[in-house]
Amino acid sequence: MNNELIKQKSWWKSHRKWIIPSVAIVIILISVLFSSGLGGVLGDYSKAYTESSLFEKAIEKAQQNKRVNETLGRIEPIGNMAIFNGYVTYSDDNNSVNTTIKLFCEKGKAMLDISADRIDNIWSYKEIKIRIKSPPERKETIEILKIN
């Protein structure tokens, strides 16, 4: 019987065949992502995710509307993923936003559309409207606020 020690390859030597191409692919994908403009879109969504007061105050204003209360009832707090299920566009150095998020309410579902400008770190709403999606027989748009 031969008692020679079997030398094993280092971790790097045994895995480099798939690590190098994987790293190259990740670098190429990141480059494509940011050069295609998708990086800006992802940036808008992540920025909106941190702007919870923008949505909360708009929902408060909507909840004060009599027609919204009659048609939809109580609006549930927005979930963490609600922003990613909607639409977000920032402009003017992130001081203007147009966004849409899905709302779940006591009596149905709706979309909340917001257009706002940030003035001295406070959101000033230009437009807030709710588009009722369900129940289907009650589809309508309710203007909460519109400033020309």
Describe this structure in words.
This protein has 148 residues and is an alpha+beta fold. It has a single domain (38-146), classed as Nuclear Transport Factor 2, Chain: A. Helices cover 39% and strands 32% of the residues. It has a five-stranded antiparallel β-sheet. A hairpin with a 2-residue loop joins strand 3 and strand 4 (122-134).
TL;DR of this structure?
This protein has helices spanning 11-35, 38-50, 52-63, 66-72, and strands at 87-91, 96-105, 108-119, 122-134, 140-146. It is an alpha+beta fold. The chain has a single domain, classed as Nuclear Transport Factor 2, Chain: A (Roll), CATH 3.10.450.
> Fraction of residues in helices?
25-40%
| CATH architecture label name | Roll
What's the end-to-end separation, in Å? Answer: 92 Å
CATH class: Alpha Beta
Topology order in helix (H) and strand (E) letters: HHHHEEEEE
What can be said about the biggest beta sheet?
5 strands, antiparallel
- What is the CA-atom radius of gyration, in angstroms? 25 Å
Strand sequence of the main sheet, in spatial order? 1-2-3-4-5
Shape field: elongated
Secondary structure: number of strands: 5
Here the CATH topology equals Nuclear Transport Factor 2, Chain: A
Overall residue-averaged pLDDT value: 84
Structural class: alpha+beta
How large is the share of residues in beta strands? Answer: 25-35%
